[in-house]
Amino acid sequence: MAKKLKVGVIGLGSMGSTHLDIYSQISEVEVVAVADPKKNRLDGSSKAEGNISGQAQGSVVGFEAKKYLDGMDLINDPDIELVDICVGTNLHFVFVEAALAKGKHVLVEKPLARTYDEAKKIVELALNSSTNIMSAMCLRYWPAWVWLKKVIDSKQYGRCLSLTCKRQTSHPPGTFYSNDDECGGALLDLHVHDTDFINYCFGMPKAVFSQGYKGPSGGIDHVATHYIYDQSQNAPLVTAEGTWTMQEGYGFNMSYTANFEKATACYLLDDEETLTLFRSSYEPEIIKLDEGMGYEFEIRSFVDEILRGEKSDMTLLNQAAKSIAIIEAEQVSIRSCSVVTLSV
To answer: Nearest to residue 42, comparing CAs of 22, 16, 21?
Structure first.
């Protein structure tokens, strides 16, 4: 029997449970330990819920894994090769730092860190590490967004003229999401998905102009941003809106509209998922997407990278860090009601 990659998961909230479910479907992986400060999560008597259908299906029940109340004890476990960090954003840096120091591979949930300063330190640590690290920016692996990145880069439908992204839900439960110091509000915890994907597709904007307002986290929980690129370079018009201030029961949706010289693509995920392509003189076309969510594709990709002995792409990690710098510029723009230039 081939040797399995031994994984430890720290944090059994909605994302930790989602990751457990995915690991259970990968034959080359064995979850040997889990950690969470809540005993009822460790014994499986309580489980967090996700906001997208298919999230948080996994549970510690069924895994013959060691259980730790302290994530640092899991990191110190010599059996573990890959540490999967699904704790609060404010704790990402300390756990990543400790895991890399122990020579572990690291998968860290989004965003990479609570601040850009911490994110830069993680990139430095990763550059000096012999192990692999991934920032779990799942949109890069979500089938509809993979399709979008491909057609933007290939110019299959001509140049991208504009991209509008939107992400809306009601306020998630739990004390973490009610503490801006820990989660960064919807601006960092939710909206960062679209900010990062825009950075991934078009690079760092020259500047941002954002408007928004505070919500139940105590931070910015509704934001709308113009990402300003050099129009002399035929750059697209790019905007994104994110909020978790909708009334209870609203549910969750994410969408994009991408307008090209020869086509318009409209994507929506709510109760169902659809991607429709409109072209002059053609009937609207429903694009068939791969089944599955970005979480499983990103984890599968990272596991395969480790098993093949390949080094992580530091460009992607650096992008994830710089996406936090963009978020922080958006926050300054909201507070000052002004255009903020990016200098990183």
So the answer is: 16
